[in-house]
Amino acid sequence: MTTLRPFTCDDMFRFNFVNLDPLTETYGLTFYLQYMAHWPEYFQLTEAPGGEIMGYIMGKAEGHGTNWHGHVTALSVAPDYRRLGLAAKLMSGLEEISEKKQAYFVDLFVRVSNTVAINMYKNLGYIIYRTVLEYYSGSPDEDAYDMRKSLSRDVDKLSVVPLTHPVRPEDIE
Amino acid sequence: MVSKMAPKTKPVDNSVNERRLRPIYDWLDNGNNKKALQEAEKVLKKQPNLQCAKVLKALAMVRLGKSEEAQIILKDVQLEEPCEDATLQAMAICYRETHRPELTCQIYEAAVKKDPLNEEFLSHLFMGYVRIGDYRKQQQTAMALFKVKPKNPYYFWAVMSILMQAYVSDDTVCLTITLPLAERMIKKFVEEKKIEAEAEVQLYLMVLERQRKYDEALEVLQGPLSEKLASGIIETKKEEYLKQMKRWDQMMDYTEELLRSNPDQWSYYVHYAETMFEISSQDVTVVDRVKTFLFSLLEQERIKSANNLRGPYLAMLYFWQQLQQRNFDASAVFGNFREFAQEYVEIMGDKPCAFQDLKPFISSLPADQVTEFLDCVNQSVGLDDPSRQSPKTVKQICRHLLQLQLTRFLGQHDLLGKEEKTLLSRELWDHYLRTKFLNAGLLTTDIRPNDGYALLAAHLLLDTWNNDPDVLDKCLLLLETSLANSPANYHLKLLVTRVYTLAGYGRAAFQRYETLDIKYIQLDSLGHLLCRPLLSMGLPYTASPLLSSTLRFYTTHARETSECLISAYKFGSFGKIPEFTQFCQRLDSSAHFASVTTERMLLDLLLDSSSHSKLVQTAGGMFADPDKDQPDWKTCVDNRDCGVFVSWDPPSKNLHDDIVKTTFNDEMKFARLRNRLVHALIATVALSPIWQIEVQETKNRTENLNNDQTAEHPKDKCILPGLLQELGILLTELKSESLMSHSQFSVQSPPPPRLYTYVENGSLEPILILMDIVSKGQCHPIGNDEIRQLDNALNRIVESAQSSVASEGFWRNYVRLERVYNAVETLCLCVLVVSTIHAIIKNNNALRKKKKKKGETDNDDSVNRVKQFSTLVSCVTSNMKKMEALIDEFGVQVCVSRMKLTESDIETAAHAITDEINKNLSQSPVSEVKNLMMEKLKLLETCNL
């Protein structure tokens, strides 16, 4: 049982069940507010019957020409609400909005070590489009997979032909 | 070289200037402000009138902390009324960084006057008004922009600015004038078919909603304009409008339609239930319709083999509960609640969310069915004898934990005695150990599925605690052990932080708190867990950086939010504009902000006062203004996330709303008292002759520079008596109130406000007596009565620190430390006031000596004054010595408490963990207060005449 609704400023006061998890970063206010200001429809949250925030997705639409696409910036579900298909639900919402905005594809970055997430995205129809070398800083730096799923506007599925060579972070458009 | 005159007309891009200025920009961008300053000066030598170079010089100075000098430059440039884009933008940055956004408006107003058709300037002016929230001027500027360039966004900026006026102005004006104007403006565009963006339609809806014209809004949703709206919005809005218009029949049909397409959307069920009750008062048969509909949704799920939705199952419990609460015979109408609950457990029991899902509803289970229900849940686990056998799969763990959690929630643990609880806790710990094998292969960032056993075992132990140190040791051992196995589990981190806090081990609590990595907005929502409590636990030095980083968050947010507000205009996210404005207010009025600001100031006085002149410097540097430096206490808000602790306690024992409310109110009262205290202290220090020399002079200098910016210093003596009077009134009020007892605070409740011990111990009285001596005037000799009163008051707080068993409950040790800290803090603050009295008397004596003719001896009066002062000093000194001895004794007492574990405990725990806990527990909790005392004793020693 889920209420899916747009993320609002007040939600930041109580998103702790999601954000206290070490894999979910808590950013400065500007980060959240700029997403809300620029792409409010791309920032959605799910709430449990008791009112707890179960998870949220942040994204945006960007790019020119056939590169016009939806992007998933952050997707996070509180540990107690995993294995319920919430991530899939949030992803499909984002895809739907991207369809409406006539985007060609949706993409996201994921740590190459995060096999659980990679498999989930694969199940949702995403392919590994390319590897981005040392995208995540840390010790050591970690590569990212740039995963993509084409949308109906990309009739010939040109956006999801995998690259054969990895790219550097500075080469990402 | 002949320099160019400052451009009075619209300047042309000067490539020479640009080339010269480039390096200054580069240095500024690289953060090398010193080089930027040098470069600017170099350019200004060649072209002394180049405005932009002047401003960039000022910017470098601002960033080098030379704001005062920068202001002189900026003021000069402003008088020249610059009209060149780069100069204006650089000035705007200066104003932003010095928190003077209103000046940005002034410079662009001047520029627009000279060049009224400049789109760029007008646009900057509009944004300037957004930053200061001047909606009317926003509106005018947006319309001026639209006239210069008829672009849709400008037009709708004007409409939004009108709407914002309506949000703040009084209802009659906005309903008759403001809002109809906004509506007409949009309608004009609709009729002329000029609507382009989704944002514009949304704004149209906002304007209609504000006027409660839901009928028309609904038409928009059903008309051609709706094509511009994203999905999701239409559904929510339509529901809202139907509800507002009380068109319940339509609402019923529509909600059913929505539920059919999305039977997992909780908000639809809530609206559906509301609609049902609205209709049922006229036509009770609607309940049957609802029942049929909900059962049809349930049937759809029942025939699924996998991936069942939670919605239709929980809906049955929700509707049953709602009917029951409104005096329907829910069982007769809907069926057996227990069976619905069991069905949910059957389907969803193997998910970790099952308990949280059932929590809002399960207390509706009739008392006589609890045992039967729990038996059934027990069976669903699939273990023959759960007391001996442990789960073999993760799903089984989930089911088993659900059974245990529900058992606790339904009050069954309350029936157990101490022995039984201890045994059960031990049994859960065994389950934890026996299911550890299921954690193999998990990443360190994964939460272990069996952590729930450890948490529940800890809760059971805490039930039996009653300040028995053995229980505490066991509890810490199992929490630390499971945390070592599951370092990502924040429930464990929160609980272990809390247990250390309850036990009074502030430093260990702080270490664990730090692993939660609380930052930004969380400093506001979760800071209450440890920020102020660190002081209560006697850790002023540890608390200091935490208070600073919290304060930094609060002071930077306004600037950040206003930039985002501008983005919302730029991207046409009009719905977010009132939301951002309210959010900004919510942070500004945060009670935690008020508390942290005051505590930070007090702590600065306390820690940054090794000598009297240092104290003067610290107090003077605060630029305190007793009138402006306090929030509107009535509008302060509670931003704490009090639901962050998991609990399976029955509703009767759970965190009550009233404890949340009471703690909030009492924290506010405390913050207010402390706010007045810190201003009274500063006003006291301001009477020191050293202040007159060091602070007043700097102040006069800055005041000449800029009259309106610097806060008023408490320059005259009159403000101290007023503040003392305010403090007296607040204190009398507080004493007449009945304050909450510490025993009402549970493990998961917010920490008990310091107010209680503070008032009870009379922490404020000795400081008040001393400040009163200062306030009465410099020539007033200190009377015997005053000294006697002071001695009594100091005695009282030292004694209250000694009486350790004065309170009961979970927070006993914490409260004990708090009393110690109250006493130490009061004594140290007294020393600060004494040092001020000392400076005043010393100065007076010196003046008198100057006046006196040579050879004349001191008169009796001044001898007496010196004598009385030394009596005062020795009174404070002796009480401090008493307190010091007490602290030493206290330190020894706690340090000997070490983990006492039985053989079987040791077997199950790694020695490293036991060692670490012992290390945590062996740190003396009173070392920081001792240091503070020693430092202030030294200051006191310098106070001799």
Automatic annotation (TrEMBL), chain A:
GO terms for cellular component: NatB complex; nucleus. It is found in: Cytoplasm; Nucleus. Keywords: Acyltransferase, Cytoplasm, Nucleus, Transferase. GO terms for molecular function: protein N-terminal-methionine acetyltransferase activity. It is an enzyme of class 2 (transferase). It holds the Pfam family Acetyltransf_1. Its EC number is 2.3.1.254. Gene3D superfamilies: 3.40.630.30. It catalyses: N-terminal L-methionyl-L-glutamyl-[protein] + acetyl-CoA = N-terminal N(alpha)-acetyl-L-methionyl-L-glutamyl-[protein] + CoA + H(+); N-terminal L-methionyl-L-glutaminyl-[protein] + acetyl-CoA = N-terminal N(alpha)-acetyl-L-methionyl-L-glutaminyl-[protein] + CoA + H(+); N-terminal L-methionyl-L-aspartyl-[protein] + acetyl-CoA = N-terminal N(alpha)-acetyl-L-methionyl-L-aspartyl-[protein] + CoA + H(+); N-terminal L-methionyl-L-asparaginyl-[protein] + acetyl-CoA = N-terminal N(alpha)-acetyl-L-methionyl-L-asparaginyl-[protein] + CoA + H(+). InterPro entries: Acyl_CoA_acyltransferase, GNAT_dom, NatB_acetyltransferase_subunit. Residues 2-152 form the N-acetyltransferase domain. Catalytic subunit of the NatB complex which catalyzes acetylation of the N-terminal methionine residues of peptides beginning with Met-Asp, Met-Glu, Met-Asn and Met-Gln. Proteins with cell cycle functions are overrepresented in the pool of NatB substrates. Required for maintaining the structure and function of actomyosin fibers and for proper cellular migration. Component of the N-terminal acetyltransferase B (NatB) complex which is composed of NAA20 and NAA25. Belongs to the acetyltransferase family. ARD1 subfamily. This is N-alpha-acetyltransferase 20. The lineage of its organism: Eukaryota, Metazoa, Ecdysozoa, Arthropoda, Crustacea.
TrEMBL record, chain B:
It comes from the Eukaryota. Keywords: TPR repeat. It holds the Pfam family NatB_MDM20. Belongs to the MDM20/NAA25 family. PANTHER family: N-ALPHA-ACETYLTRANSFERASE 25, NATB AUXILIARY SUBUNIT (PTHR22767:SF3), N-TERMINAL ACETYLTRANSFERASE-RELATED (PTHR22767). This is N-terminal acetyltransferase B complex subunit MDM20 homolog. It comes from Daphnia magna.
